[in-house]
Automatic annotation (TrEMBL):
<dbReference type="InterPro" id="IPR002563">
    <property type="entry name" value="Flavin_Rdtase-like_dom"/>
</dbReference>
<dbReference type="GO" id="GO:0042602">
    <property type="term" value="F:riboflavin reductase (NADPH) activity"/>
</dbReference>
<dbReference type="GO" id="GO:0006208">
    <property type="term" value="P:pyrimidine nucleobase catabolic process"/>
</dbReference>
<dbReference type="Pfam" id="PF01613">
    <property type="entry name" value="Flavin_Reduct"/>
</dbReference>
<feature type="domain" description="Flavin reductase like">
    <location>
        <begin position="22"/>
        <end position="166"/>
    </location>
</feature>
<dbReference type="InterPro" id="IPR012349">
    <property type="entry name" value="Split_barrel_FMN-bd"/>
</dbReference>
<protein>
    <submittedName>
        <fullName>Flavin reductase</fullName>
    </submittedName>
</protein>
<keyword id="KW-0560">Oxidoreductase</keyword>
<dbReference type="InterPro" id="IPR050268">
    <property type="entry name" value="NADH-dep_flavin_reductase"/>
</dbReference>
<dbReference type="GO" id="GO:0010181">
    <property type="term" value="F:FMN binding"/>
</dbReference>
Length: 169
């Protein structure tokens, strides 16, 4: 079998190229939360990764221009929530700039270490922040898992081609 030649024209590195390539990459959808002096903050993230099993570490990216960054930059603990396909509206709320993310209809409660925990998610973790690594206009935040609950019911929410989607069989 011979490979079909690729007739497209490669593009030089740019923010647009990166966005275009990653639109083709399906990613799980998470919401990151924290509690600050002015109240809870949170944002939708598709950059969540399991970084290590021993000790249990996760990582995610956050833009330094994000409204949540001033709080995330200084807190000791964050909440990590894996969203289900039934939570597209919640993902949109936490992705929207200027939204009151913790107002109705968002359901949440104060969890371990004072971290806001979203109700009805597939799974959640509370993590102690162990590193904030500069990465261009973002920071990669590494958190060590303290406690969590993987017992939510449903199928994962995905982000692909600029839209939230359910997982297909």
């Amino acid at each position: 079998m011979t490979a079909t030649p690729d007739l497209s024209t490669p593009q030089l590195a740019s923010p647009d190229l990166l966005r275009s390539v990653f639109r083709r990459h399906a990613a799980g959808v998470a919401v990151i939360t924290a509690s600050g002096a002015g109240g809870p903050v949170g944002f939708t993230a598709t950059s969540l990764n399991s970084a290590a099993a021993e000790p249990p570490l996760v990582s995610f990216g956050i833009g330094t221009g994000s409204s949540s960054w001033p709080v995330i930059s200084g807190v000791e603990h964050v909440g990590v929530h894996i969203l289900g396909e039934h939570q597209q509206d919640l993902a949109g709320t936490f992705a929207r700039s200027g939204a009151d993310r913790f107002a109705e209809p968002t359901r949440w409660h104060e969890g371990p270490e004072g971290v806001p925990i979203l109700d009805g998610v597939l799974a959640w973790l509370v993590c102690r922040v162990v590193a904030r690594v500069p990465a261009g206009d973002h920071r990669l935040v590494v958190g060590q898992v303290v406690v969590g609950d993987p017992s939510g019911v449903g199928r994962p929410l995905l982000y692909h081609q600029g839209r939230f989607n359910g997982l297909r069989d």
